[in-house]
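Aim 2, interim progress: modelling of the protoporphyrin IX containing FE-bound target.
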Amino acid sequence: MSEPQAGIFVEGSTSHFFLEYKLIEGVSAAQLKDVLAKAVVLSDTGVNRVWSFGSDCWRSIAPAACPADLKPFAAIGEGKRVAPATQQGIFLWLHGDNHSANFDAAMAATTALASVAVLQLEKIGFLYKDSRDLSGFIDGTENPKGRGQQLVALIPEGEAGAGGSYVMSQQWVHNLASFHALSQSEQEGVIGRTKPDSIELEDELMPENSHVSRSDVKIDGVAQKLYRRSVPYGGVLEHGLYFLAFSCDIRRFDRILQSMFGVSGDGIYDHLTDFSTPVSGNYWFAPSAAELSAIGSL
Ligand code: HEM
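Predicted structure of the complex, ligand included:
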């Protein structure tokens, strides 16, 4: 059994750093491997680290160990309602309960990568109340539990990239003033769940454009489940959700986004996109723990 990077499954961290790096032009695969081999072994007590790579980057590092469907993120949607693509090369997610240790780890990793990659996007995330999004709704209720998490998140044994995971990340910027101008029952109609305790609305009360209606996608009877690890980020001036999810199948992300952005055939879009806007979009591959630690010799 190929063990995954353990940090994917550690839940409840109060402090998060999401770091997206752009590769410096002209860097060779050999240079990249050499630098990464040193960077990925840096460790600090209490800091969970998950390393992931964009498709071009991972293909150049490990052409033989690349999962079949890995691809860059492409924009989804039409007109003004679009999930944009901002594909970068390396993604590091650091999390734990010690913000100082996370900060030190983020600085050390960025210094270690400096000759091959430049930090392009940084979001500092935090646990808000009892795992709520800043809208006030609990995020993660329908996430798989126990063994189901690995089944949903990891590429199965026997396939290229086994024990690794397809990853999607998106920075969403919230307009909380407009969301909070709605009554509580209108807000619940936008999400599709009750606000205090996250109970799914009954069928007759569930709007067809609620977030639950648009994200609970089935294809040929198979629920397109994800293991979501999003947390809120930001402060008073700008805030939102850093959406982060892991999947055994990259097509699930496309299908849910198509449904949310009104391009899955029925023309209905997710009402949530009237109150929050994605400003980044990336697909990554998080290799298994063994592949990650062998990066220098792949
Ligand atoms: C502003 C951005 C977003 C916010 C605030 C948000 C928030 C939520 C909330 C509150 C729930 C209900 C509770 C739960 O089951 O976790 C939920 C469910 C869900 N969300 Fe999101 N979400 C966002 C974006 C996305 C995106 C981009 C995707 C996937 C591409 C997604 C996929 C899902 C899925 C699969 C569910 C479970 C649906 C079900 O089976 O009931 N969400 N989200």
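The chain has a mean pLDDT of 97. The CA atoms of residues 152 and 247 lie 6 Å apart.
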